[in-house]
Please model this.
Amino acid sequence: MKVSKLTNNIEFNIIFFSLLLNTLWEGLHSYFYLFPDGLATYPHYCWLCVGGDILIALGAFFLVSLIYKSRKWILKPTKMQVLFFVLAGVIYTVISEFVHVNVMGTWQYSDMMPMIPVVDIGLSPVVQWIIISLVLIFVVRRQVNSRSSTK
Model:
């Protein structure tokens, strides 16, 4: 596959920009977490979380694509499509954080983590999904549209 064809692919761009944005975020908010084996295991958890973040982004994208019967919705998204995309990620994130923290004990929050009391999860992962999903829509749309217009 040619590089230009790959960089024009919506899913490739979702994966690529999710990797960049979520790696940055996970690194910046690491002090909100405590890990069972200490800070030495943080890189392991970080990459697992980034991988999960990429899957959440792809899952939310495919869900909206399925609802609207088009993968190209992201090139000119409506407010409702953006809302569904963000909401799908937020719902998954809330459930995942609750399970990992309160059921499985995969990680814990440090005292610095602002909490959402009703569901007893950290605020940072929810804010992460909201901000990154909106930025992701913008950069993927811009990347694919700009690549299409140069042909």
Remarks:
- The helical segments are 3-7, 10-28, 42-68, 79-103, 123-149.
